[in-house]
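=== Structure Prediction Worksheet ===
Name of assembly: unnamed complex
Input type: mixed (protein and possibly other molecules)
Chain count: four
Listed entries:
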Amino acid sequence: MIETYLLEALVAFNKYKTLSSAAEEIHISQPALSRSMQKLEDILGVSLFDRSKNKITLNDTGKLAASLAERILDQENEMVQLVRNFDSSLHTISIGYSTPGPMMEVPSLINRLYPDMAVSSDMQDEETILKSLRNKKYNMIISTKDIKDIDLISIPYDSERLYISLVPAHPAVAYKDQGLYFKDVNGETFLMSAKVGVWEEIVRKKMPDSKFLLQNDLDSLSEVVNSSSLASFASDLTIRLFRAEENPSRIFIPFNDKEAVMNYYCIILKENEEKLDKWIDFVKEK
Amino acid sequence: MIETYLLEALVAFNKYKTLSSAAEEIHISQPALSRSMQKLEDILGVSLFDRSKNKITLNDTGKLAASLAERILDQENEMVQLVRNFDSSLHTISIGYSTPGPMMEVPSLINRLYPDMAVSSDMQDEETILKSLRNKKYNMIISTKDIKDIDLISIPYDSERLYISLVPAHPAVAYKDQGLYFKDVNGETFLMSAKVGVWEEIVRKKMPDSKFLLQNDLDSLSEVVNSSSLASFASDLTIRLFRAEENPSRIFIPFNDKEAVMNYYCIILKENEEKLDKWIDFVKEK
DNA sequence: ATCACTTACGGGTGACGTAAAAATC
DNA sequence: GATTTTTACGTCACCCGTAAGTGAT
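=== Predicted Assembly ===
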């Protein structure tokens, strides 16, 4: 049988055309490469090169061998990739989201239930995450829609109400206890994360006269928010997670509109039921 | 990169299920195989086995790896085959025939022109050899038909006249000088090689009342012929090749029928023109 | 006790690099 | 003289087999 290093040597020579340059490229000495080529001919029992005293080139047989060798090496690399990916998929719970709220909470919950598993998170629009769930790119998604299907498990998972975040001096703070409506603050300028998923569409629609200053980075967003008197958004979920109530520089007031409440569903492929058994029990009992 | 011996080891283990039996099958010690499996896991950075203290089995990742490894080994074997076949095709002139006459003569002529080339000979019916020429299975065919085509070279190559071979006591020997006709010996019983190609059809058609005793092996045919007084066939070509005229136990009389003469054409794919240049010149000058 | 696997250890093959020679440009 | 390839030679890596150890049947 032909060892892989010989195939690599042949492919390198075919690519770089001289023994010296090919040897340099694959970090072996030039005599070593020369010997490897001889050995390959010996194993195959076939002449692969046209040799003159200080020149060596592949003959037709050699070119054929080199192209076949390249295919084998490609396949070997593919094997390594596939095996590593498969293995990592066994040790990873991959989750798709359409809004950032659950994405801040779920990974740590998962981590508590499956301490040896890695968790990967990804946010895309509703349609994309559902497709990727079916593609098995995700093991589960947190959707804003309750999708019933024979091969899917859908469990209600929490809900999230949008809040407005205001400096204490803002006049709308008067609504703190009773809450307010989008129309009450339509026209206000908001600082907002660029990655809020479906929320963006809602606030733009309900407050068409408002301006939204999008910030890509979450850290810089909170920095800007803290040093500015502009309004921004929060939710019951983020307030709880970040203990934001303890921050005296901001007052949070809930929106009362029905559109300000997002109901989430945890959706899992039936075939992943066993893998996520503990998580499913946890969500159902919530 | 993963060396081939590691893939072989993995595939063997997958096949024989225990390290000890697999090791035996591939003629290495069991500890060596154990180490190879560890090394493979190390290279891939992945666990391939479920291990208990004295039992080891492939896990799902391992099964995936084993099946991918098997494909790679298959491809490597295929490479060896293809390269060897290609090389041997470079050193072989492969010729298809539809009759045995030229097959007895051409190889030695070729050999004289191309002393370093091997010659392979094969007899099939007209249709098959033409197809195999186009398939590149043959470099050239000796056909009984003159085929004109854009990608073919067709050169008249010799002709062959059928003779009857008789014991001197046979009454038809009287025709020795003037020749005879098929109808003159219709009804005669002939000893004949089973591999005479298109000749068989001709003699059966022209001498419908004759019986033909077919002999598979050429050597035993000539033995039977020599020890029998039955008629058999020869041709100017075989008489010349075997100096059969010097054999006193047999008289050869030509058939005068036009069907008793076969005109041959040497047909070559244009793309093989260069490879067979010397042969083409030789045939043209004949 | 036997079997199956792993770990430990010493040995030998063979792939490597360095050096040198030969040939071409 | 610089470059390219091959041959020669000594070295070292590493793969192997033997032996020993551990746990399961």
